C-alpha cells in the first residue's frame, strides 16, 4: 500500500474530542485493523486531544487542535498539536498519576495510556508555544493474515 495522509483542524472544544476520535478511526480503517487496534487508536487520540484542550488551552475554546495522520505501508503515525501553553516539566508530566489539574479530577494517566497502546510516542513541547504528541503503531492487518 502506498502512503496516504490526512490533516484535520478544529476548535479546542471538548465536544470535538469524539469527532477527532471517529475521524482518525475512519482514516485508519483502510488498514483493516482489529477491533482492539482500532480501540487503542481511538483511546490515544482521545487522550491526546483532551490533553491539548484541557492542559494546552486551559479549556478555552478559541484554540486550534491539529491532527495529522499518515499511513506508510502497515504503520500509522498520528500527531496531535496545539499552540497552547506547553508543558513546563515534561518528565513530571509523563509520570503515571501526575496531573496539573487535580481540581478537574483528571487521572494523570494520559501519557501512560498513549505509551502502552502505541509502539512509539514522541512529545515535543515549548512553554508558551504548544505541544505536539506524535504516536506510531504498526497495524497487524487482517488482510495479511494467512
Automatic annotation (TrEMBL):
Keywords: ATP-binding, Kinase, Nucleotide-binding, Serine/threonine-protein kinase, Sporulation, Transferase. One of its GO terms (molecular function) is protein serine/threonine kinase activity. The keyword ATP-binding applies. It comes from the Bacteria. Gene3D superfamilies: Histidine kinase-like ATPase, C-terminal domain (3.30.565.10). Binds to sigma F and blocks its ability to form an RNA polymerase holoenzyme (E-sigma F). Phosphorylates SpoIIAA on a serine residue. This phosphorylation may enable SpoIIAA to act as an anti-anti-sigma factor that counteracts SpoIIAB and thus releases sigma F from inhibition. PANTHER family: ANTI-SIGMA-F FACTOR RSBW, ANTI-SIGMA-F FACTOR RSBW-RELATED. NCBIfam families: spIIAB. Belongs to the anti-sigma-factor family. This is Anti-sigma F factor. The gene is spoIIAB.
